[in-house]
Amino acid sequence: MLDRLGGTGRVVGVGIGVLVVAYLAVSGQTQALVIGVITGLGYSLIALGLVLIYKSSGVFNFAQGEFGTVPLFVLYLARLWGMPYLPAAVLALAVAAGMGWAVERAVIRPLFDASRVTLLVATAGIALLSIGVTFWLNDAQAHTVDPAVTGSPSFTVFGIVVSWQRFLIVAVVAAVGLTLTWFFNRTTLGLAVLAASQEATATNLVGISVKRLSSLVWVLAALLGALAGILAGPFEPFGPGAITSKFLIPGFTAAVIGGMSSLPGAVLGGVIVGVGQSVGASGDLLPSSVPGGGAVVTFALLAFILLIRPQGLLGKS
Which of 36, 48, 231, 248 gives 274 a disulfide partner, CB atoms 3.0 to 4.6 angstroms apart? Predict the structure, then answer.
């Protein structure tokens, strides 16, 4: 009976999302829809990293945004030194992977048997340390980095001009989604990660090291954060803590809306948050006198969805 009710809740939740998108398209708010979806897909990269770590260890990772900020600074410095964009991006991703591995080995693994609250505070400390180091190395000045795809050509969606950098976000999220689906469903290592997240003791008993799998998960989460930073960084100047301040709260909201145990839910939640913010900020839904319209609409969506599905749209009870 509970499974049947849970399935009905998922259908209702996803149906609500489809109706909202249809309403925006019919009512002419295509700009809010297009920009919101693309922005939300950027949020979903942070949300995917949060869900990966939460599924594997039950930890809310407050350092996920810094996995995006640090590689963004690396990309900026590499470009400043004259490195071509592709090698600079690869270097930034490599630094992110190393950062994820180092955080897991130096902080998370020694606290592996500590309470989840202790680990949560530890990740918050990592974020604060990262922000402090970037302040020290780069000061508080805003920097800009060029997009991966430069030049004037762009294309239109529903009459809205979309840059190639925004299209790249869509393509990367689609590729990441397909890759993660294949990894967790078709590879022995991916199945081992899922097994460890569900039955850690049994996984250890069959000879699979849960702690080593934890390192892999943190590296993957760091790479997802780095992709969010590299792809979203060119749209506006950034400084220390940029991705944490702009993406972490929307990413957490997206993960909760989609379900903290669901990777597809993280993408769906990201789109919902992005569209909600875009509609709220457009002034068409709320009076222009209401400050922070995007945050108001996002909070209302979060409260409504959790009211009908406390575990999130695609989460399990």
Answer: 36
Q: Which amino acid is at 272?
A: I
Helix ranges (DSSP H) in the chain: 2-26, 30-57, 66-80, 85-103, 116-138, 164-186, 188-198, 200-205, 210-232, 242-243, 249-258, 263-282, 293-308
Neighbour-count burial of 31, counting CB atoms closer than 10 A to its CB (0-12 exposed, 13-18 middle, 19+ buried):
middle
pLDDT per residue over 220-244, tens digit each?
Answer: 999 999 999 999 988 888 888 899 9
- CA Rg, the chain, in Å? 20
Asked if 42 and 169 touch (Cβ cutoff 8 Å), the reply is: yes
Return the domain boundaries, the chain. Answer: 42-242
Whether the Cβ atoms of residue 195 and residue 203 lie closer than 8 Å to each other: yes
Q: What are phi and psi of 155, to 5 degrees?
A: -140, 170
Q: Which H or E run contains 157? A: strand 155-157
Token pair recorded at residue 39: 């922005």
- Alpha-carbon distance 96 to 221, whole Å? 9
Q: Distance (Å, rounded) from C-alpha 84 to C-alpha 90?
A: 10
Neighbours of 106 (CB within 10 A): 10
**Which amino acid belongs to residue 139?**
D
Residue 160, φ and ψ in degrees, nearest 5: -100, 130
- What pTM was computed for the model? 0.88
Chain-centre distance for alpha carbon 98: 19
